[in-house]
Specification:
Number of domains: 2
Strand order of the largest sheet: 4-12-11-10-7-5-6
Structural class: alpha/beta
Number of strands: 17
Helix content: 25-40%
Radius of gyration: 21 Å
CATH class of the largest domain: Alpha Beta
Largest sheet: 7 strands, mixed
Strand content: 15-25%
Distance between the termini: 42 Å
Order of helices and strands: EEEHHHEHEHHEHEEEHEEEHHEEHEEEH
CATH superfamily of the largest domain: Type I PLP-dependent aspartate aminotransferase-like (Major domain)
Number of helices: 12
């Protein structure tokens, strides 16, 4: 039978059928250590008992009702995630792209409420905010945008976190209403903002009356060693977006806001059919329980430091390694050449990894990995990188 799926993915030659913790197995029974977690989604690993039990229990009572009615699990999840993020209100949706769409709509509505007819948002080069038309426009990846033009109006792009460039824009335009930024660029190559930069951008936004929007789709939910990466700088954004690890594989996203931004959307101005349904929110509550009870935020910080130190010891002397970057369990190893083939080589070594931005090995292991598993990832990845570079 021919494959009925659209040709949108360059899939690796493996079919995964089962998982447990940080391990997965293919249809031939071979085991792999997962250093990618479904691209930062399965922070609790695979088949987590708490999530599985919550889903099974909720599925037996009520999977979905529309947002025309109150949903207890949604209200409780909203309260708890807002508390962790330092925010006041939450809109639940189904994905990171939808959360970022919501943030863009909040920014535009915020501008219109201030009498700005065509509000503009500052975004960054190498950013990734999603694949809908608005989030694709905000994304700083010409390859991803190719063939989908014209892009939307209303975005001004600067080098990642370039304070001087943003200040220059601020002096030139009166129609800017927001800055949208990832505290750690994920798809852009695991690139954290320089120390102190986000705090400086927060100050600039305060001075100009802009909203600071932090896209924490990949960096949120404890992955960087804080609940949200902005918290390393003591910063609280006006709007924070999260998805991926919030449901540990169950599709759910959230756009959180505080202050004036929290009151911008009103009944009829935005909505969703599936977002925040009982099943997804029970999954989110189970995830929060596991992170809180397991001390996984602190664990991500400690394990990330252990792995980055290990990589610098194993690979720091190689001329072909440009930089080893990390913030918690977001780790990037940038090489001096394209290295996409390392994903296949890693499969042969029993590892699931990713290469992003062409030249950066991206590692996003589950927060529940053991020290032994962390060391195995370091040893395995270091070996394939060394072998690859030795080939010239």
């Amino acid at each position: 039978m021919s494959d009925a799926l659209m040709n949108t993915y360059g899939r690796l030659p493996v079919t995964l059928v089962r998982g447990e913790g940080a391990r997965v197995w293919d249809d031939g029974g071979r085991e792999y250590l997962d250093a990618l977690a479904g691209i930062a989604v399965c922070g609790l690993g695979h088949a987590h008992p708490g999530v599985a039990d919550a889903l099974a229990d909720q599925a037996r009572s009520l999977i979905h009702v529309s947002n025309n009615y109150h949903i207890p699990a949604q209200r409780e999840l909203g309260r708890r995630i807002a508390e962790h993020a330092g925010q006041q209100r939450v809109f639940f949706c189904n994905s990171g792209a939808e959360a970022n769409e919501t943030a863009i709509k909040i920014a535009r509505r915020y501008g219109h409420d201030r009498g700005i007819e065509a509000p503009r948002i500052v975004v960054c080069e190498q950013a990734f905010h999603g694949r809908t038309l608005a989030t694709l426009t905000a994304t700083g990846n010409p390859k991803a945008q190719a063939g989908f033009g014209p892009m939307l109006e209303g975005f001004d792009r600067v080098p990642f976190g370039d304070l001087d460039a943003i200040r220059t824009l601020a002096g030139e335009r009166e129609d800017i209403v927001a800055l949208m930024i990832e505290p750690v660029q994920g798809e852009g190559g695991i690139r954290p903002l320089p120390e102190g930069r986000l705090a400086a951008l927060r100050t600039l936004c305060n001075e100009k009356g802009w909203l600071l929007i932090c896209d924490e789709i990949q960096s949120g939910m404890g992955r960087t060693g804080a609940w949200f990466a902005q918290q390393h700088e003591g910063v609280t954004a006006d709007v924070t977006t999260v998805a991926k690890a919030l449901g540990n594989g169950v599709p759910i996203g959230a756009c959180l806001a505080r202050g004036e931004a929290a009151e911008t959307l009103v009944p009829g101005s935005h909505g969703t059919t599936f977002g925040g349904n009982p099943l997804a929110c029970r999954a989110g509550l189970a995830v929060l329980d596991a992170i809180e009870q397991g001390g996984l935020v602190e664990r991500a910080a400690a394990l990330g430091e252990r792995m980055v130190t290990g990589f610098r010891t194993a690979l720091g002397d190689l001329a072909g390694v440009r930089e080893i970057r990390g913030r918690g369990l977001m780790i990037g190893i940038e090489l001096d050449r394209d290295c996409g083939e390392l994903m296949r080589r890693a499969l042969d070594a029993g590892l699931l990894i990713n290469v992003t931005a062409g030249r950066t090995v991206r590692l996003l292991p589950p927060l529940i990995i053991t020290e032994d598993e962390a060391d195995r990832i370091v040893d395995g990845v270091a070996t394939i990188v060394r072998d690859f570079l030795a080939e010239g």
